[in-house]
Amino acid sequence: KLNKSCRYFKMKKIKNLEAKTAQTLIKEYIDSNSVLQTDKSTTFSDLSDCIDVHVREISGTDEGKFNLRWVHIAISNLKKHLQTYHMISERMMQNYLDEFCYKLNRRYFGQKLFERLIIASIYPYWCDCG
């Protein structure tokens, strides 16, 4: 049976789309034994020293649209989520991303949502915005 839901998302505000930035983030957040699936952007051109298996697909093809669909859905939903705010500051952008991912990653918790919220409230999720 085809799984119709995504797993977990993590979003990070970045300054640019350079390959060096992507390599730094991948080394920091993704296990080197993972399988990384990306589009054929030049940002992800050389990740051989960061990760063992890297699958690159053209996002415009049928296979690319199928395999990267949750990335596109999440980006689209994030854009709609950001429209609910009156004024978005760049300084707070990581907090907006964290809030969106928090909600997205917990949407299927159901009856255990309150208990998990209590546990999560103990930990400092918000970054220091100075």
TrEMBL record:
Pfam families: DDE_Tnp_IS1595. It comes from Algoriphagus ratkowskyi. The lineage of its organism: Bacteria, Pseudomonadati, Bacteroidota, Cytophagia, Cytophagales. Residues 10-105 form the ISXO2-like transposase domain. This is ISXO2 transposase-like protein. InterPro entries: Tnp_ISXO2-like.
